Structures
1.
Amino acid sequence: MRHFIFLFASLLLSACAADGLRVIPAADWPGITPEEMPRAETFRSVSQTVGKEARAECLRQRRVSNCDFTILVDLDPRAEANAFQTLDDKDQPVIIFTRSMIQSTKNPDELAFVMGHEAAHHVLAHIDRQSQNAQEGAAIFDRLGKLHGEDGADLERSQKLGAEVNVQVNVKEFELEADRLGTIITYNAGYNPLIGAKYFDRIPDPGDQFLGTHPPNAARIQIVKDTARQLGLTE
Ligand SMILES: [Zn+2]
């Protein structure tokens, strides 16, 4: 089983009560090395400032009613560099960073930007919208399949493909939406999203694939730059 460390939550007490979560300062991460310490401490302070800003943005936008973020670390040292957003058993948003993700960032701005992006997925209700898209996509392909006289296994295949195409197309759109709002959250939390987005320079570029889950890095960087300009931030 993976170990998670609880580092920040807007509702400290309820999070403490949750099973499997512990409140431990970065200095007490099991097996933490001296090299990991500076990033772990940065992660803690970024979690507090970005988490607070993400919650404020979530309450302002009112697209979702659950705005109490919990930010966790997946302590498995073998887990690859990754950050993602999900919901806990009480439907509250959880953002999880792997240990290697934290170490792979070069400065607080990069950490803040990745965190702002993940938080934005929740503020924009992407999980709900994604399952809705899958249902709509399946329904469209179902109608098309029937029009063309498909039945049985073929029809089922059409429905699945429809759901997949609709989800993937929208997933790319969601990524860009999250980059835009993530830029705003990062900026409002006191970090520089233009420096933060330099993280894209170091990750593999997925290019523009029809069924890819992520837009090309260039498109993502452009969204960040455009949004930063609107915020009055120049390079
Ligand atoms: Zn994303």
2.
Amino acid sequence: MQATETYNDQVVRLFLLASAVWGIIGMLVGMYIAAELAWPALNFDIPFITFSKLRPDHTFGVIFGFGGSALMGTCYYSAQRTGHTRLAWGGLANFTFWGWQIICVLAMVSMPLGLTKSKEYAEPEWWIDIFTAIVWVSFGAVFFATLARRRIRHIYVSNWYYGAFIIAVGLLHIVNNLCLPVSMTKSYPIYSGAVDAMVQWWYGHNAVAFFLTAGFLGMMYYFVPRQAKQPLWSYRFSIVNFWALISIYMWAGSHHLMYTALPDWVQSVGMAFSLVLLMPSWGSAANGLLTFNGSWHRLKEDPAAKFMVLALVFYAAATFEGSMMAIKTVNSLSHYTDWTIAHVHSGSLGWVAMITIGSLYAMAPRALGRPMYSHKGMELHFWLHLSGTLIYVIAMWTAGVTEGMMWRATNPDGGLTYSFIDSLIAIKPLYMARWFGGVLIWLGMWVMAWNLWYTAADARKKIISPIPVPIPEPVAHQMPPPLPTAAA
Ligand code: HEM
Ligand code: HEM
């Protein structure tokens, strides 16, 4: 191999850009549907922009557009660095970029038109699903081929998480979307009744587990030690947590179907596994946070590190909350209420978005060969995002508990104390507050896009094309630790 061989960061930069763009689009839709819940007249009686039609656009845009592009970009970036090798099959990697963007556009256009399988987080119709499977398998092929050509014997832990994320999401996608197409616009799932519900929530829950958790943990395990400028607190602990996480998560999906037609024991299994899940979840959060031991001062000057630390705090909080919500008696209060929405967004805005933004700020200067254009811009983004997330989550917790308590309140004669509309009136101010939180978060995304744009423009102006990063020769020791780990 030539000493002058460089990393393939071209496709990484494209995913970086796409992630910022989908973040703005997905969160704009989130903001709009939040406004519709506070001011229902905003649907203007136009079918395509009613809450029900736009909601899947929000979830698809943020999870698959914003999160998916960030995951694929950071996966390609870190697999090369941890293996000291160039990305395998550059042409196929470019195909995964364009393929993924086409899938997002097709899904986001077809769903408001009513073309949907009506399965949450798996709405697009069958022909989009088939294309998605092809792109996903190609993504896996590029990743595993890159691992196979690594010049470092050890496979660094971030790659284990990315690998599990790729295999599990492919499996979930194919099994859950098996259906009988009757036309280009309509298909029927091959499952029915309680089995359909169980398969859907095996998928839905593990989409959280492997897309929104394992993938982002891969990102965390690569970028946190880099940004803390320290080795991981305990490398061995990260491997223990990996095996515990992936073996427990798969069994917890039935906590989404408490008090339904699903057999009672299946619901109890989901509850038990959800409680145990807290251990590997907190294990990873602790490992990430303790990696900053000795370099907490970096939080003063480095907004990317701030995003990462807060992401880990939210990850710990959201997983603790999830385990508690999986207890049947707690779920009887929280289910159907905005408490679930608070949990979802402390996970997605707190954990997923913050670790993504932190990692993008860490990766962009390296992938573009320039420091970020505006340090103040990153600081501003941090405060906009944090305050918006806190407003959102606190408003929805309050709304959720209010709803739960009002719905179960009874008079001495056994009748309900409140009607449904009473609960809606009670939480309206909280819906307005959530919308305002969303506006702050969305403005923050614009600040990031502006900052990335000028960083890239600066790179273009000064050197025509970003500096290619040479691949270092393989080193005698493994990756990691470049330094000895502190506690392993
Ligand atoms: C500007 C920021 C955001 C706003 C204003 C926002 C707003 C909303 C609203 C209004 C809903 C519907 C709630 C309901 O059905 O009652 C929702 C659902 C959802 N959002 Fe967001 N969101 C934002 C960011 C995000 C991000 C970044 C993610 C993921 C990475 C995300 C993931 C989800 C998911 C998974 C649901 C469905 C929750 C469920 O079915 O329980 N959101 N969001
Ligand atoms: C230990 C880890 C976790 C456990 C045990 C857990 C548990 C739960 C429970 C019990 C629910 C409510 C189900 C219902 O009543 O309908 C739920 C909903 C949800 N959680 Fe978690 N959670 C965990 C971590 C996370 C994380 C880190 C995220 C996001 C990044 C997340 C995203 C979601 C979403 C999107 C839903 C709503 C699904 C829907 O109804 O559409 N969870 N979770």
